[in-house]
Amino acid sequence: MDIQALKDGILSSPAFVVDELEVSKALEALATLRDRCGCKVLYSIKALPLSAVLALAKPYVDGFSVSSLFEARLASEALAGQGTIHLTTPGIRPDEIAELTVLCSHVSCNSLGQFRQVASVDKTSSSLGLRINPKLSFTEDARHDPCRQYSKLGVEISDFLDSGLTEHAKGLHFHTVFSAMDFTPMMQTLDKLKYLMGNQLTALDWLNLGGGYLFDQIIDSSGFISQVASLKNDFDLDIFIEPGNAIMGKAGYLLATVIDCFSSDGKAIAVLDTSVNHNPLVFEYQRQPELYEHNPDGGYSVILAGSTCLAGDLFGEYRFNQPLSVGDKLVFKRVGAYSLSKANRFNGYNLPDIYITDSKQTRRIKRATYQDYRQQWLSDE
To answer: Which residues carry this modification: N6-(pyridoxal phosphate)lysine (predicted)?
Structure first.
């Protein structure tokens, strides 16, 4: 993407921009991986459930992965019967089970109790499975370690084997990593699963290997391809993967404008017309997003601050070739996943306008208004 042209061409700010070509590039890489090994690809729509993105993904994937009733409804509308919908969530409400099992072709229950509860309602609709916790941690940060101690996510393999449900579960699901750049965690997890279950895997119909891998950025996929072939040949399993960040991560940009500049304790502060509430992973994981204008060797250091009252509403400290001024536009890169889906209007600051761009044009596809904000807070009385 020509970011300078983007800055010159977009008049509104803040703006969230989806690069259609980058999305398609990631989807094509996944389609190639699917063709090489025979796995099935699901887009995990929690990364960005924007209808334009779902439409882009639909021709390339075998379905969508969802985690709630609303996501399932949206996925069903987008697919219109042309794909599968897989549900995985620790939070299935009893009054939603009947609808979820109609909407979703596959349901990976999070606990043994949840499995029994869903099975008692759903007799024919969904292929019911279990999310397992292989008790293998691959990150030191417990905030995004599904296998952390006292984890709420999944059933230990040994507990599943002792549960009496091995003849009833149609599949297993696991998800153990976050933004992994190689397949080592997956290989170790599959080795443990095969060691503990052996030929009992032949009783299953499918195995969902989850997400968390940056599939499009992993150079060597030979081990993954071999594992999928082995699982299919040895146990006659359908193999699913459900990338989200791998599809959307590099395809999103947040354009902002400097609205104030001043000094605080000897450091330059630039306040932007956006906020970490438009990119919550910044605060959630204390992560500093990539900035197009940042130059590590630049002579001017500036703390970029969001426009809300939260003291920690800070994007980080960046370096520039020249001092920033009110009206300057800045662009954060690689913020396509989990930004808009977690964004909020804290302090009453509006959500960014949403644009989509390709090689020919950039067009605005959504704008939130005061009426949207007002409707959110009007009483139903």
So the answer is: 46
Homologous superfamily of the 3-17+249-377 domain (CATH): Lyase, Ornithine Decarboxylase; Chain A, domain 1 (2.40.37.10)
Phi-psi region of 105 (alpha: psi -120 to 50; beta: other; left: phi over 0): alpha
Cβ neighbors of 266 (< 8 A, separation 6 or more) are: none
- Residue 257 · residue 329 · CB < 8 Å: yes
- The residue that leads in pLDDT, 295 or 215, is 295
Q: Which residues does the annotation mark as catalytic?
A: 309
Across the range 67-79, mean pLDDT stands at 98
With a CB cutoff of 8 Å and minimum separation 6, the contacts of 306 are 271, 272, 274, 275, 276, 277, 278, 313, 314, 315
Cβ(117)–Cβ(95) below 8 Å: no
Asked if residue 48 has pLDDT above 80, the reply is yes
Alpha helical stretches, state H, the chain: 3-9, 20-37, 51-57, 69-79, 97-103, 112-121, 157-161, 184-197, 222-235, 245-248, 281-284, 370-377
In 3D space, the residue among 173, 245, 191 whose CA is nearest the CA of residue 213 turns out to be 245
Residue 221 has a pLDDT of 92
265 CB-contact burial (10 Å; exposed 0-12 / middle 13-18 / buried 19+): exposed
Tokens 């397949």, residue located: 183
Residue 360: CB atoms within 10 A of its CB come to 7
Q: What is the pLDDT of residue 22?
A: 96
User: Residue 270: which residues within 8 A CB-CB, separation 6 or more?
Assistant: 258, 260, 261, 302, 303, 304, 305, 324, 328
Closest by CA to 315, choosing from 324, 323, 304, is: 304
Query: Residue 362: how many CA atoms within 13 Å on its side-chain side?
Result: 21
What residue spans define the domains of the chain?
3-17+249-377, 38-243
What the block records as the tokens of 357 is 């761009």
CATH topology (fold) of 38-243: TIM Barrel (3.20.20)
Cα–Cα dist 75/47, whole Å: 13
Q: What is the mean pLDDT of the chain?
A: 95
Token pair recorded at residue 198: 């052996």
CB 223 within 8 A of CB 193: no
List Cβ neighbours of 210 (8 Å cut-off, separation of 6 or more): 173, 174, 175, 176, 241, 242
The residue with tokens 């750049």 is 181
Tokens of 83: 């794909």
